[in-house]
Amino acid sequence: MIRSISHATYRHRDLAAVRTFFEDFGLIVAHETPDRIFFRGCNDAPYLYIAERGEEPAFVGVAFEVDSEESLQVLSARFGAPIEDLDYPGGGKRVATMDPDGRRIELVHGVARVAPIAVSRPAVAWNSAGERRRLGRFPIFDVGPAEVIALKHVVMSSPNPAAIIEWFTEKLGAFPSDLIGEAKEKAIGAFMRFPRGAEYVDHHNIAVFMGPTNGAHHVCFETIDLDAIGMGRQYLASKGYKASWGLVRHSLGGAVSDYWYDPSGFRVEHVTDGDFLNDTYPTRLNPHNQESLEQWGTMVMPEDFLRS
Ligand SMILES: [Fe+2]
């Protein structure tokens, strides 16, 4: 039913500052109106992130791509919401609803794909002690933003994560890859995937954690590889942006991540090398501790990372 995550929408006061930040972060402006900027990555999605102009900065919502017109009709009936034309680049249809916290959840189908943009280099093949994968000299990277390929996930914060987990699993067919808490029924966090049987899918496209607000904790974009994250980190630091946490190798989901703050104070993540799972991987229950979040990192997780 849900194929994957489509795009995230945030509201910002200063669109010019947001434009500059996300270009430095590695996104590309695909389309612009006086009140909206549509950012894309290098993949074939026409946009991954929409910045809307507004007085009060906020996470507006997240959209998911639905696999068929029939699925969209099923979801339209389920939520009692009409199928509307999507008046954005690439067109398509959408059903708009709200999760139990009041976040806007959009379900989209038929958005026209665009030609992918070639990234500047292939991923670096690493030499290991047992295997030579890269022969000759180490490549010299271009200095600049970490090229974003795709939107990977949104992590939401909620005062009632159990209700959000139940809503996403029952209404949208999500499956918790990893739960955090003492018991499944009392989970305070979940990383959820959209399963497709034997096919391997992202460990999570949506996640939720206990938090004081009903907003988003961060939005995550995939880069080429670890070196892109490192070069991107150096570039963002050179521009004076504020780092949040990273580099870190996560325990749950397996990815290597680096977190920054955008000009409105929202966290954004560069990621690479995340897990892919299929239906042979059941839900795991994990304790709520540092080890569940981090295997190694170049800095200790700051205390404010767990606040929204
Ligand atoms: Fe993340």
Automatic annotation (TrEMBL):
The keyword Transferase does not apply. Transmembrane segments: none annotated. It holds the Pfam family Glyoxalase. GO terms for molecular function: dioxygenase activity. Gene3D superfamilies: 2,3-Dihydroxybiphenyl 1,2-Dioxygenase, domain 1. Keywords: Dioxygenase, Oxidoreductase. This is Glyoxalase/Bleomycin resistance protein/Dioxygenase superfamily protein. The lineage of its organism: Bacteria, Pseudomonadati, Pseudomonadota, Betaproteobacteria, Burkholderiales.
